[in-house]
Structure formats: C-alpha cells, structure tokens
Amino acid sequence: MAAPQIRGERDHLMKIALYQEFGEGCRRLTHELLPSDAGWELLDVPHAGAAVDSLSAADTEAIRSAEAVIASPLSPFPEAIYDPLGRVRLIQLLSAGYDNIDLDRCRSVGQLVATNGGANAVAVAEHTIMFILAALRRLPVLDRDTRAGRWTAAKTTEWEPHELEGRTVGLVGMGRIGREVARRLRPFDVRLQYYDVVRAPSNVTRSLRVRYVSWSRLLETSDIISLHVPLMEGTRGLIGAAELAQMKPGTILINTARGGLIDEAALIEALQSGRLGGAGLDAFSAEPFPAGHPLAAFDQVVLTPHFAGPTYESWPKRVRFAYENIARLERDERPESVVFELADMPLRAKS
C-alpha cells in the first residue's frame, strides 16, 4: 500500500511569485510570514518599475510558473503575468488600489485579481482624519512659521482656523476605508453623509449614523468632502471644474485614494480663486510629486507622498490576508476581496 501524501511531499508544490516595489522590508516580511506548513515556494522577482520589458528570462519564467503573484500595482505589470500559457490564477495585491492592472487581459486569461481586504483601512482612515484637522487649522503654516521663529498667532485675522465640530462631512465611497473614516469621525460631533454607486447595508449606516445622499447633494451641502473610491474608467476625473463649482464656498477636499480622481488643473484654479477652502492630498496625477508643482504653493493645502496606507501595523495584515487568499486558491475556493469588475468570473482550473 502506497504511503499517504503529506504537505511538502506532493509532486507539485504551489509556487508564488513576489513582485512588489515596496522595498526590502516588505520582501523580508513576506518571507517571514510564509506559512511553514503550507509547502509553498516563494519566488522573488525583482521589480522592474516602469521598465517592464527588462525582466530576465529566469524572472519571466518564475512568474509564468507561479499559480499566484503577490504584487503591488504602482507600475504597469510585465507581459509574463498575463501570459495565457502561464499558470497564474490569482494576482493578489498588497494594496487597495488596482488601477495599473489590465483587467481585460486578466479576464481573457482567467485570472482573478484581489485587493488587500481592507488591511490598510485603519491607516488610511487615520490619515484622512489628520488631513481634515490639519487643513481646518492650516497646520503647515503654523508649523513652518513656528520653526522660523514667526509667531503666527498675532496675525490670524488674515485667515481663520476652524473647528471640525458641527461640520457636514461627505464621504465618497462607503467601502472598508469609508466606513473606518465614518467610525472615527463620530466622536467629533459632525453630520455624516455619503454617496456610493453601491448603497451600504442599512445596519451599517445606522451604526455609523451616516446617511445616503445623491451625488449632487453631497457636493452642494458638504463642508468637507473625502474621496474613498478606486480609480477606474467611471471615476477618472470624478472631481473636475463642474463638481468644484457645485461645492460650497470654503469646502475642504480630501484625497487619500488616487490622484486621477481629481482634475488637478481645475483644483488649482479653485484654490487660486479662493472658492475652495483647502485640501489634503496624498495622491497625485504624476508620482513622484514633482518639485515646483503649483499645488505646493498653497498654504491651505496639506501634502503627503502617497503615504496614507503604509504603516508599520498594516504590513503584517496585508501579507497574512494575501496568504489566506492563496490558501483558498489552493483549496479551489474563491478568494476574497476580488475586484468587482471580475466578480462574475469563475475560478480558473489548475493547469
């Protein structure tokens, strides 16, 4: 009688390609958290950045031989990931965004794409609250003047710091991040409203004390508007000149999602005219944010370098979720947090 197979003694060990551009710390953590009893082989593939055609033959073959790719979508993916002759069944992202993924090609070859399952939701929500408070109080000006020995308090008649209490906050998107933002805003005694193409369940909105409003009403009645939606065909340029014109004078606009959601030229014009009260921006149309960008000249704008999500605490959550989804894949179960554009697509059979 043949000896039963156990994990690690199978003819085929699942291969996982790690293709990420978050740095050595992320690479090391992904190896450290690899389940020791899973019998998986984790293959490091150096990230090529924008030079996606520069992968070596060995790295190309490593990707093609993997059933799952753990990746970050900050740059376009190499052709090997979409190779119809390859074995990739799941592209598991460490991020919430997926705008650099060619979803049409994924569908054509039967690859599912999953985001990080909200592993960075707390980090982004906290960053959003920081932005709101910093913009209301014009923290960059206070910090700059204090460091330079200028006592700004004597000249606050030029602009007025504001309180958050009593304001109406409009959240665009009520997914994992939007809900975490709402949860953290409740103690500030604000009025919460949201717009989303998919309505949140009533038990969620009741517990968070947030109400659904139309897109136009959110723009027209919110004192603060915060964006929490992915960048896709339907959301690119979501905030343009027309939308900025609909906002109340003095509105503060927060973006911790993707730069392509906002028409930056229109945003600059709204800031220059004084119609917009301020902004907190963590994402931009061109990244890295170039020196001398016009947005850097505004005292009422708070800027950070696409850094809302990467906290020390979020990284283990991202990696563990990735491995949980890969375990589902190995069991031929559907992974969680599949992007909604591919939600109707069945799990591809093993090759």
Can you put this structure into words, describing what you see?
The protein is an alpha/beta fold and 351 residues long. The chain has 2 domains: 15-119 and 311-342, NAD(P)-binding Rossmann-like Domain (Rossmann fold); 121-303, Rossmann fold (3-Layer(aba) Sandwich), CATH 3.40.50. Helix content is 31%, strand content 14%. It has helices at residues 24-32, 57-65, 103-109, 121-137, 139-147, 176-185, 202-208, 215-221, 241-246, 264-273, 314-330, and strands at 15-19, 41-44, 68-71, 90-93, 112-114, 168-172, 191-195, 210-212, 224-227, 252-255, 278-281, 301-303. It has a 7-stranded parallel sheet with strand order 8-7-6-9-10-11-12, with helices on both faces. Strand 6, helix 6 and strand 7 form a beta-alpha-beta unit. Helix 4 (121-137) crosses helix 6. 37% of the residues are buried.
What would you say about this model in short?
The chain is of the alpha/beta class. The protein contains eleven helices and twelve strands.
CATH topology of the largest domain: Rossmann fold
How would you write the strand order of the largest sheet?
8-7-6-9-10-11-12
Largest sheet: 7 strands, parallel
Q: Work out the number of β strands.
A: 12
Mean pLDDT: 92
Number of domains: 2
CATH superfamily of the largest domain: NAD(P)-binding Rossmann-like Domain
What would you call the shape? globular
Stretches where pLDDT is under 50 for at least 5 consecutive residues are: 1-11
State the separation between the terminal residues, measured CA to CA. 29 Å
Q: Please identify, by name, the CATH architecture of the largest domain.
A: 3-Layer(aba) Sandwich
Written as H for each helix and E for each strand, in order along the chain, the element string is EHEHEEHEHHEHEHEHEHEHEEH
